[in-house]
Design a protein that fits this description.
The two termini are 36 Å apart. This protein has two domains: 59 residues, DNA polymerase, domain 1, CATH 1.10.150; 273 residues, Aldolase class I (TIM Barrel). The strands form three sheets. Strands 3-4-5-6-9-10-11-12-13-14 form a ten-stranded mixed β-sheet. The chain has a two-stranded parallel ribbon with strand order 1-2. A two-stranded antiparallel ribbon has the order 7-8. The radius of gyration is 21 Å and the shape is globular. A hairpin with a 5-residue loop joins strand 4 and strand 5. With 355 residues, it is α/β, with parallel strands linked by helices. It has 13 helices and 14 strands. Helix 1 packs across helix 2 and helix 7 runs parallel beside helix 10. Bound molecules: S-adenosyl-L-homocysteine (SAH). The site of S-adenosyl-L-homocysteine has 17 residues, from strand 10 and strand 12.
């Protein structure tokens, strides 16, 4: 390698790619494992402090590579729940958000995969904001690294891909980030505590199933009827429910995991008796559970059109809805409106003045 070579960003390289990088600078591949260990287990981003590397190698790394971080712009704490929202600035001055949600025996990190989102789901604040670009693998994993640094690596127990963006549209970088999180050298994180949430892209769901990563899959369902889902989630026109369900069945079968159906309760849209009945029928089609989510208003985004008309289903109706599902043996839980007071609940992530 000569001095005109490109400087390589090491954050976001899978272990395999890390080993390839070391070979490319005429070093032994196992050095890649050592650096991977420093980054993901010791949360060390300064080559000069990676003391089991020879000094000459550390100098070489400072020339040929870098470990850049997202810049923390602000944080917001929810006093009621302990949920904390992070606003980061990327190197090209885009803004992204992630959230740490403390629960009884765990802390869940909710990460973004894109700046904004192209899907334009009518109930989603990120959708209203528009789409800018995919995040790099480094930017995706960095959200974890920075949260782990603050809370202690062992304390971030779960990762959900439920922040800004559609992970399966940024497919390659999502896969690379999952490879890093589930790497056997990355201590403490396990595939059954990682959930990828998607609006439903059948071929990508199948590819994720075939990847061997076997993480959990959540489908943002919100309606079992195409004509209704078409309206609130325009992507449904391209990938109708029948195809999405077939892909979910494939996923469940191949990975031996249960699919989570996320179901945000929208007044008079998806909270009717026929909606309960359709959910019951669906639940019998594949190993699954339903995650009922109270709708977090997005009025603060001043949305137009259908988005402006959406109202949350009241809590008593939600409880009735859930009871009916439970009576039919559907596994169902109601998601806490964590961090509602700081707009940090899922689907609330949107930077108002986007760079
Ligand atoms: N694009 C992915 C991940 C981001 S959305 C997906 O569609 O799954 C993460 C979850 O939050 C999804 O289930 C989404 O439907 C839900 N959500 C979005 N906006 C919401 C809102 N305003 N209130 C409640 N849930 C919302």
């Amino acid at each position: 390698m000569n001095s005109s070579s490109k400087i390589i960003e090491l954050k976001g390289l899978t272990r395999e790619r890390m080993r390839e990088f070391f070979s490319s600078i005429d070093e032994k591949p196992f050095r890649g494992d050592q650096v991977f260990n420093w980054i993901y287990n010791h949360l060390e981003f300064d080559f000069d402090r990676m003391l089991n590397l020879p000094k000459s190698l550390r100098e070489k790394l400072n020339i040929y590579s870098q470990l850049n971080s997202l810049k923390l712009e602000t944080t917001q704490n929810s006093l009621s729940t302990g949920t904390k929202k992070y606003l980061f600035n990327t190197s090209d001055n885009r803004k992204i958000e992630s959230v740490v949600i403390p629960e009884k025996n765990r802390k869940t990190l909710c990460i973004s995969t894109q700046v904004g989102c192209p899907l334009d789901c009518k109930f989603c604040a990120t959708g209203v904001m528009g789409y800018k670009r995919n995040l790099t693998t480094g930017e995706i994993v960095d959200q974890y690294l920075l949260a782990a640094k603050e809370y202690g690596k062992e304390n971030i127990t779960n990762i959900v891909y439920m922040g800004m963006g559609e992970p399966l549209i940024n497919f390659e970088n999502t896969i690379e980030s999952l490879k890093i999180f589930t790497d056997e050298l990355n201590k403490g994180l396990s595939r059954n505590r990682i959930t990828v949430s998607t609006a439903g892209i059948p071929d990508k769901i199948r590819m994720l199933a075939d990847s061997g990563l076997r993480v959990k899959l959540a489908l943002s369902l919100h309606s079992c009827f195409d004509e209704r889902r078409d309206i609130i989630m325009p992507i449904n026109k391209k990938y109708p429910l029948k195809d999405v369900f077939e892909a979910c069945k494939y996923y469940s079968h191949k990975t031996k995991t249960r699919i989570t159906f996320e179901y945000t309760m929208l007044k008079n849209i998806n909270d009717r008796q026929e909606d309960v009945e359709a959910l019951i029928r669906l639940s019998r089609q594949m190993p699954s559970k339903v995650n009922v989510i109270p709708f977090n208003s997005i009025k603060h985004m001043n949305p137009e059109g259908i988005s402006a008309e959406l109202e949350p289903t009241g809590m008593s109706r939600i409880l009735e809805f859930v009871d009916k599902l439970r009576t039919e043996n559907v596994t169902v839980m109601i998601r806490d409106t964590q961090g509602d007071d700081i707009s940090a609940a899922c689907g609330q992530l949107a930077v108002k003045s986007i760079a």
